[in-house]
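Most newcomers find our protein records easier to grasp once they have seen one. A learned vocabulary of local backbone shapes supplies the integers on the structure line. An example says more than a description, so a record of this kind follows:
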Amino acid sequence: MIDLDATDRALLLAMQEDASASAATLARKLGISQPAAWRRLRRLQDEGVITGQVLDLDLARLGFGVTVFLGVKLATKGRVSLDDFERAVSAIPEVQAVHHVLGLYDYRLRVVARDIADFERVLRRRVMTLPGVGNVEANVLLSEERRPGPI
């Protein structure tokens, strides 16, 4: 774990809001010099706190109006390796995230589709045909509020 001071925390919060902000922009926002902001960013990257930047796309504008969270329980735990399932499910373009979880289901998947009919196609032709898939539960996303993580 790395020790973060108040300026580091403010810098990370600002980066969560806009990861493309320049060091000069961040410096102005935090009331520090541009070289100080750059050094702090560099240190946080070198220490592995900042591991990359992600482009956030508006899926609805791209035609993907439905997001579904799938709970997947593998039917044959001993016969199908988790790696094989993860590799196969990760190859499905509509699957945006794969989480191996503890609980009722073995995996939680975030799946996007153009509409419910498209989701049904993905479910029937792609997800349900994967090796080892047993029970599946679907939860359709109604709304989402993104909040920055704890810093």
